[in-house]
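Table S2 (continued). Query chain:
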Amino acid sequence: MLKDIAKNPDVAELATTLHALRAGVRGKVGSGKAQPGALIKILAAFPGHYLYIYNYRKGRITHHQGFGEVLGYADDEVSIGTLYHAFHPEDAPALAMLTEQMIGAMSRISNAHDPLGLAWMVDYRVRRKDGQYIKVLRQSMVFEVGPANDEVISTINLCKAISAEHTGHTIGWRILGPTMVDLDHHKLASMQPKLQYRPSSRELEVVRELVRGKNSKEIAAALNISVFTVSTHRRNLLLRTGTHNTPELVCQAMEHGWV
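Corresponding output:
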């Protein structure tokens, strides 16, 4: 099915990444530390959600649920190819690049002692089987790790229909977890304004203090965090939003209604 993905030029690079990840983990010793059945049963109880687990070793979706209720696809129609062919044509280039970047970042994680603390979110348009497009929020995290060096084996992806809350056509993304910063931000910046970063709650707090004209030391005191942490948030915000300095960041925050 990855060959089918590669036929779409907008997602061809993503297909190449998936092929490489599958080859890179093939033959590693050890089985994963996860029991998907129980977790899927719990998560599937949420209405308006569908979920799937993508296994890098097997190069395919190994578990899924809720596609019929949300997207109208039968169980035997669900595959990684189905997911990527369902990208809205206007979203496909930016979304494929973002997904390729994030999958690559996850695959480079080693010694993932707290895999549930590493996650990313992205909102975009997906085509239902009936041809209608809906907006979804996908939350992805490391799900299965190997026992040898905690290499990532699979990720779990929980998707929620959010058309009622979000009607815009931009693609939003967010990183959760301090180690997931190994991205090519220049590539991501090239996709703006189609691709927009959604700051975390803590990052928004830092931005609000910047709008008030405070420096890093003053922000650290106001938020009861270290100056080093403030500096890290500021650096990440500049990289992820594609801005070059604090005034540009503040202007973008005002334009997007973050403050």
